[in-house]
Amino acid sequence: MIVHCWGVIAAAMALVAWLPNPLTILFAIAVIGSRQLGLSILMHEGAHGGLAVSPRVNMWLSQWLCGYSVAADTLAYRAYHLEHHKYAQAENDPDLHLSAKFPTTRASMRRKLIRDLTGQTGFKQRRSQLRAALGKPMQPVPARLRYFWQALGRPVIVNTALFSILAFAGYWWLYPLLWVVPLLTWQQAVTRIRNIAEHAVLPSSDPWRVARTTRVDWFTRAFLAPYWVNYHAEHHLLLYVPCYRLKRFHAVLARAGLVNRLEVRGGYGETLRMASARA
Predict the structure, then answer these.
(1) Which of 15, 63, 164, 183 is the most exposed place for a label (fewest CB within 10 A)?
(2) Phi-psi region at 32: left, alpha or beta (left = phi > 0; alpha = psi -120 to 50)
(3) pTM score, whole prediction
(4) Do residues 39 and 66 lie in contact, with contact meaning Cβ atoms separated by under 8 Å?
(5) What is the pLDDT of residues 162-209, one digit of tens each?
(6) Which segments constitute the Fatty acid desaturase domain (predicted)?
(7) HSE-up (13 A, CA, CB side) for residue 48
(8) What is the pairing mode between strands 263-265 and 212-214?
(9) Tens digit of pLDDT for each residue in 103-139?
(10) Full 3-state SS string of 218-255
(11) Which residues have CB under 8 Å from 122's CB, separation 6+?
């Protein structure tokens, strides 16, 4: 899955390097933004120990080949994400703020997606991340540098390596255009849509329905739901089932007559309409 993810990213960049025009650039931004979400999904898989049998190999893959590239850290993510599983949709759920504000209005949903696609959301998030990593201004410079290294040093190394590879190949401009721009725009929008589909507008009192599965076709998988992330109800039911087995797990539940107990919807359009149904 990791090789596939980076292979798709490389192919999209190669397409623009070979045939640069507005259509190929927009296509590549959408493809790469969805794969940046894919890297986050695979980091999430690593947080559950699903990338390798060896814990050390699993963590290395999750950190260096997935999380650091999108300025995320598996260990920090794991710490609160397991709390999310423990308290899903309850008051102690650390992710509750992502779903509690829904349903909202169509106008509010439209504004959110416009902010995502224009880079406003991504810019604010990265600015806050950078400020936090720099520590407090009154701290000594060496202390602030140590804190920055602990927070963002490894993501800087990975992104510097990615930029260096592109620059060595003679296409340094692909990094800002086809890595930074998708990370600040399309990746933000599809992450929001995924978050809404997974947990928004759910009956929190039913333990079988603390998460939602969304049926998708191949096109939606390519641009919105990579690596079986749409099988989220099954993931919450048995969180250590690897993501590449969730589709099979869904079929097992169907044969047992249990799928109807889960929250399953027919597409992301349906969940977005539910989440924006407030007058």
Answers:
(1) 164
(2) alpha
(3) 0.94
(4) yes
(5) 999 999 999 999 999 999 999 999 999 999 999 999 999 997 678 899
(6) 20-255
(7) 18
(8) parallel
(9) 999 999 999 999 999 999 999 999 999 988 888 877 7
(10) HHHHHHCCHHHCCEHHHHHHCCCCCHHHHHHHHHHHHH
(11) 116, 183, 184, 185, 187, 188
**Within 10 A of 279 (CB to CB), how many other CB atoms are there?**
5
| Two tokens, residue 176 | 């800002």
Angle between helices 186-199 and 268-275 (to 10 degrees): 80
State the average pLDDT over residues 234-255. Answer: 95
Can you name the residues that pair with 231 across neighbouring β-strands?
A: 213
In the chain, how long is the greatest CA-to-CA distance? 62
Cβ neighbours around 72 below 10 Å, total: 19
Quick one: which of 118, 102, 108, 96 has its CA closest to 189?
118
**One-character DSSP codes across 115-130:** HHHTTHHHHHHHHHHH
Q: Are 63 and 46 in contact (CB under 8 A)?
A: yes
* Cα gap 171→216, rounded to integer Å: 35
Task: Assess contact for 247 and 263: CB atoms under 8 A.
Answer: no
